[in-house]
Structure formats: structure tokens, C-alpha cells
Amino acid sequence: IKSDVFVFPSMDRDMYNHETTKTNILKILKNQFVIEPNSGELASGLIGQGRLPEPEEILGYVKCYFENQNKLKGKRVLITAGPTYEFLDTVRYISNMSSGKMGLSLVKAAISMGAEVDLVIGPNNLNLDIKGLNVTEVVSADEMYNKVLNLFPKSDLSIMAAAVSDYKNKKTLGSKIKKDNSVLNLQLIKNKDIILEMSKIKNEKQILVGFALEDNDEILNAKKKLINKKLDMIVLNSLNDEGAGFMSDTNKVKLIIQDSIVNVGLDTKDNVAKYIFDFIYQEFINKDQIKV
């Protein structure tokens, strides 16, 4: 039976935590909104997750789901994610620790709100088989630049979450650099600033959101990027926050616009992504609809 919402039936704690159940939940989540069991005292006498939510709770979840899935209906969202690889020779490259997980969480949040989503993502190990997602996988910053600038004019909202390498080797060698006793000197040149180029062609109806990863003077540096790159909003990650940033399944961010800063506490990246989109909707999209 085709349905939008799946409610897990009552089950014992060990049954719910079984590996097979968890695997099936991940499969269902690809195409359906899942209302998971509540925690509490179970029929077996154990305490844990497995209780069927009360009817009022289920109704609330369902109502929220259908209201939420129309918020971005008719909108096209462009998201970038993951690292880029800037090759030095045929095997070595400059990169960073980005996994693309935050970008993927943003994708899922946008799709759940009814958006059509274009994802441009660097090298990754993620499952990108998501209904309603248009994926372009790239390797280098130049490849990401070309694809993003091609897609950007069609987008209503763009969120640049990728950790693009700032520099690349001036000349990529066509064979592996051999190790010897001498010092290896590399001449690095700047990559194109993708989001800055987007801001130059952005029209007044488009929303452009950037990400900033900082480890000192975080807010000051993020605000500089917000202003210099003419962004509508910037999402600030701090390397000083435990449980946030690269590789982690959790995140903690600050949402910065021209006149305010909103703190989003440590949570799963999926939940942080939902909060980001709710904030964007309330701050930009819903206000525009009210004006009309």
C-alpha cells in the first residue's frame, strides 16, 4: 500500500533495536515520513523505545507533515556538499575532511518540504539514491564552479555547504611525483570563489546562503563573508565546538543574517538541517508570500 506516513507499531525494546528493524527503518525513510515509537514502560516490563504514540500525537505529526511538505512546493533548491580534490599529480591531491553529511541532511530537509533539489557534490561515500533528487558528482573546484554556475540561474534558493578547496596546484603533473631527498616546492594558486561569482549574478528574488567554518573570531569572520559576498544568510560552524563539523553525525551552528544571530544547539545533522530550512522559510519565503 502506498502511503506518505508510516507509524511503527508497538514492539518490545530489543525488537525495535534489532539490526533488521534498523535496516528496514532506513529503507522506509527513503520514501516515507516515519513516526517512531515513544519511550517508556513496555508490556514486557522493560523500559525503552517501543510504545505506540498516543492518537493525538500521531495526528499532530501527520498534520505537521502535510503542512510542512508544501512550504517549498514549486521552489527549486540548489545545494553543494562535500570536499573537492585538487590534484598535484596522478595520485596525490589537496583536500579536507568534509564528508558531505550536512549537505545530504539539507537535501532531505528540502525534499521533505516539497522542493525540487539539485545537489552538486564532491567525492563522497554517501547513499544518494533519494527520490526527487537531481545529483551531479564532481571532483575539483573548477568542476563544481562550472556546474553550480550553470544551475544557479534556475534556483530560487541556494545553500553552499560544500567545503571547496581554496587553492590548487598551478600545474597538475601528468605522472606520479617521485620521492627523493630534495625539498618539494608547490606553487599554489587560488581557486575561483564560487559563491562570490554567484552573488554577482544573483537577482533580487533569489536567496543565497553560505557556510563558514571558523576556529577564531568566528562571528566576526562569518559576518565579513556575509557582507563581502552579499549573502542573505550564513551558517557558522566552529571548530571549537565538540560534536560539530567534519565527519560527525551531529552539528551545532549559528544562523547569521544582517541584524540577528540565532544559535542552534548540538543535535543530529538531520534536525539541524530542518531547523535551517524552517528559519529560511520564516525569515525569507513566508515573508515574501505575506507581502504578495
What would you note in describing this structure?
- 32% of the residues lie in helices and 26% in strands.
- The protein has 292 residues and is α/β, with parallel strands linked by helices.
- The strands form 5 sheets. An 8-stranded mixed beta sheet has the order 9-8-5-10-13-14-15-16, sandwiched between helices.
- The longest helix is centred in the last third of the chain and has 23 residues, at 269-291.
- The chain is globular and about 70 Å long.
The 3D shape can be described as globular
Assembly classification: single chain
Strand content: 25-35%
| Total E-strand runs | 16
Put simply, the count of helices is 8
Q: What is the H/E order?
A: EHHEEEHEEEHEEHEEEHEHEEEH
Amino- and carboxy-terminal Cα gap: 40 Å
Mean pLDDT: 87
Major β-sheet strand ordering? 9-8-5-10-13-14-15-16
Query: Poorly predicted ranges (pLDDT <50, ≥5 residues)?
Result: none
Helix content: 25-40%
Q: How is the main sheet built?
A: 8 strands, mixed
Cα-atom Rg, whole angstroms?
A: 22 Å
Output the structural class: alpha/beta
